[in-house]
Amino acid sequence: MNSKLSLVWLVILGSAVASSDSEGTDFVFSFVRNADPNPNVPNQVLSITVLNGGSTNSCNLTVTYRETFEGPVSYKSVMVAPLSAVDIPIPSFYGFAYATVGGVQNQFLAHETLYAQSSCPVTVLANNYDNQTLQGETFTVFPKTFGGYAFSFSLPPVMMMEQYQQVTFLPTQGSANVNLRIPEIQASHQFAINDINGTSYIALKSSTKSQSITYHITSDAPIQIVAGVTCSGAIINSCDHICYMPQYIASAECYYDNVMRDDHVTELLDNQLYADISGSCQSAQTVILNNGNAAQENSVSGQQPSEPLVFDGSTAGAFYVEATTAAVHVSKYFDGSVRAIGSYITTVPSISQMISSSSYFYTRDPNSVMTISCSRMACSTIYMDGTLVFGTNFTYHGKLNIGSESYYVLAQTVVDPGFHTLSFREEAANKQYAYYIRSADNRYAYTGQINVPNVNITIPPTTTPGPTTTAKTVIPITQSTVKPMTTAKVVTTDKPITQATAKPMTTAKVVTTSKPITQATAKPMTTAKVVTTDKPITTQSPKSTTSANKGSPATSPSAATTKNIITTSPSKAPPASSSTIAPPPSSGTTKT
Question: Are 214 and 184 in contact (CB under 8 A)?
């Protein structure tokens, strides 16, 4: 990044205030492990990357860890200068194979947890790579402020014997009593975690490798989760490690009425994603996949196993996941056996989690890909390293009309590895965007800066004859009010649904968010400086690219079906053109 652009960022950013909730000062995390059957793991390279993109001053970050498995607690401090990233090595034993049997493991609690504290808001990435196969994963470490009370998510199958799905439970406020339920194996566990003992985790071996596993977790205090698969995707001899931090469910209850809009915008590269609702929902709920030209209804249960959802007829085009009766956790899963060796999993944030100010990210490899979902105004005015994103040399995935706003999904190749910025040069309303980063060979992918999960639940009023009106009560989902879902017919069309046929959705509703979109200003930055530590720490120089109101929870179970309902619009939009496409002068209109 040249000095002129750095000066622009200093003006844009201002003081040391986080521009997104995913920046923070207090972190707890771990690694998904199974690199080797003993603590000596020469092939496993672990590290964290710390990014300072929101402060005019250097941030002092301290990592709490152990040098050896049985060693005492140690501390490592670094200074992360503005507009820079610093890599901090983590001892390889944090990646060795603790698990030898399935079930909840609790004998190594204090020896798998890492903590980090910073003097000013930073972004932290955790890296786990095999220096022989060059495969592995990078995931966003969310700060403790992302802790929640209810989680529901699914993990893909394990592809090899002696490999595992692993879920680690991290306390964020001292201690917590955790309940875990796994529908696939009809298992449940209750256990306590605390800051002294660290964490607990569950490891499932490959006896269930033909199916995905769904995890429903509740806690009496905020916790965070690290989840992954040690051998995913691709053929057995080339399977890849995947890992991420699932986010908490924004609302742990489900409703009979359409009392919310929980929309998640993305593109589907490999035709697989998971959509999970709270385990407290006793009846199946409808989750819709919509590409603006077709709306596919899917029955999702909080009581039965989940499998990846497949959007029939859609490959790489833009689409969104819509839920109106229950908040949904959405994750994108890339299976390397489909197109390449690499594999990854990452969260698809909701529109309410989109940010509206400048942000920053990091790429490990040349020619990584930044995929952004953005409102019309954000796409029109956002710059990556000083170059307009919606200008030239980008991949256009499509446009979606959601409520009264138009959203675009674009992908931009990031030529040089290192520290990068996303910024606005003009003030404007309705600037919303979210993004994720992946390597060109799909070895890793991680969620960019976002806000915490949230959803507005609104109870529509019902008018009655006479001088008064009464508020309508949300009707609980019970046996008497909801019929079991049955097999649905699939409506076929004469034309396939493709990226080129994107068209405004026909069932759009107004999107509500948890807080107003403000013109937040990000903070100034300059160059990096590293404090000497007991292990080498590398500094990455900046790079530039060249080109509730609650209703009654559900109480009666109803079986979920796995059939899809596909509806299409009567006509098709013209194909998307090349990379010179620009946003229209006005936003899309709502259709009912």
Answer: yes
